[in-house]
Amino acid sequence: MSAAPVPATGRVGGYRWRICALLLAATTINYIDRQVLGVLAPFLQDEIGWNEIEYGYIVTAFQAAYAIGLLCTGAIIDKLGTRLGYAIAISIWSLAAMGHSLAATVGGFMLARFMLGLGEAGNFPAALKTVAEWFPRRERALATGIFNSGSNIGAIVAPLLVPVIAVTWGWQAAFLFTGVLSATWLVTWLVLYRTPEEQPKLSAAELAHIRSDPAEPSVKVPWLQILRHRQAWTFVAAKFLTDPIWWFFLFWLPKFLHAEYGLSLLGLGLPLVIIFLAADVGSIGGGWLAGRLIKRGWSVNRARKGAMLVCGLCVVPIIFAARADNMWVAVALIGLATAGHQGWSANVLTLPSDMFPRQAVASVVGLGGFAGAVGGMLIATFTGFLLETTGSYVPVFLMASSAYLFALAVVHLLSPKLAPAQLETPRAQA
């Protein structure tokens, strides 16, 4: 039985934050699992014998599955429910992560990466749905921000943890260990998770607090209707043009640092940690800057694009990293760029809610995520061919340095005022 939607008073309890902690752990593991290959890539290349083009294909396999998963998993999770849907997603990616340890050929790694991408695509749709089930609207932004920070935590933990495991027990152990982390989370999830109405440890006061919002209309907006609006293409274009740069950072930075500066497996840890710590700072700073500008009286349109401009300018100097004689200069420039990307993303991810009604936001986000994953496929294949034929990272860094300002120009062209989209409302039944 559902609690009445009345405001809770007094102390309501904090069981919902335990659920948020589970989401944080899942997102952290999600990013650790996807980063293992990137950290080990320079050394697996010698071990397995793949070339740059084949590594590009391996990364593309992950991106392709991730794109497919983003289109499909939301509907599957809606149908099966959060508990079972999330469990299936993490079961797939846990088995796929451990399956990497059995791969001995390019084809084997491509299969393992494809299955990993398919499973990992379910993390964010499931986590966002869980937040909607367990938190009133006024707390959802905070809960989402907490669990989403796991993406940066995972990007920091992987280069610290994976090299030590690989050097001590072999590269296969790194994949097995992260797969075991996923499996451990799965058991914990199945034991602890129930919907709020079914959770016996939840107090009546906290349940009333969770259900204190007015009932939300559940109206599905077809994709074809959404895509008729320039506002949707604004978000799709922003993701397509800039998400691939982040995927490049995740999967190619270890190879770049190894190739250009001769870093050992253990030596990669500190530079990568610094780079992704900078990304964490940028993620917070980009959101803070836009909010600060709005508080100073700027319009949402001007503040959002102003913050995006600052973040885009932070990425421009990365072009000099490709030829930096000193590794720490390159690390500083790349760290500035990752901070710029995450600050940019913090603002781009608000565009759907800036321009679309609530019932359409999830669909717009899914379309943009698909576009970003497709862009990631293209840059993975392109980078593989580029490095195999020229051995130079300069063209990729050049693309990265210009992508954000170009994307901002496209955003402004498509939505000069970030005006809300006027969607058709369903006609009342006669």
UniProtKB/TrEMBL annotation:
GO molecular function, one term: hexuronate transmembrane transporter activity
Listed PROSITE patterns: MFS
Swiss-Prot/TrEMBL catalytic activity: aldehydo-D-galacturonate(out) + H(+)(out) = aldehydo-D-galacturonate(in) + H(+)(in)
Keywords per UniProt: Cell inner membrane, Cell membrane, Membrane, Signal, Transmembrane, Transmembrane helix, Transport
Residue ranges occupied by any Major facilitator superfamily (MFS) profile domain in the UniProt entry: 19-419
Any Gene Ontology CC annotation: plasma membrane
Membrane topology: Multi-pass membrane protein
Transmembrane segments: 55-77, 84-112, 169-192, 232-253, 265-291, 303-322, 328-349, 361-387, 393-414
UniProt KW Signal keyword: yes
Annotated Pfam families: MFS_1 (PF07690)
SUPFAM superfamilies reported for this sequence: MFS general substrate transporter
The keyword Cytoplasm is assigned to this record: no
Localization of this protein: Cell inner membrane
Family designation: Belongs to the major facilitator superfamily. Phthalate permease family.
PANTHER family listed in its UniProt record: HEXURONATE TRANSPORTER (PTHR11662:SF285), SOLUTE CARRIER FAMILY 17 (PTHR11662)
Descriptive protein name: MFS transporter
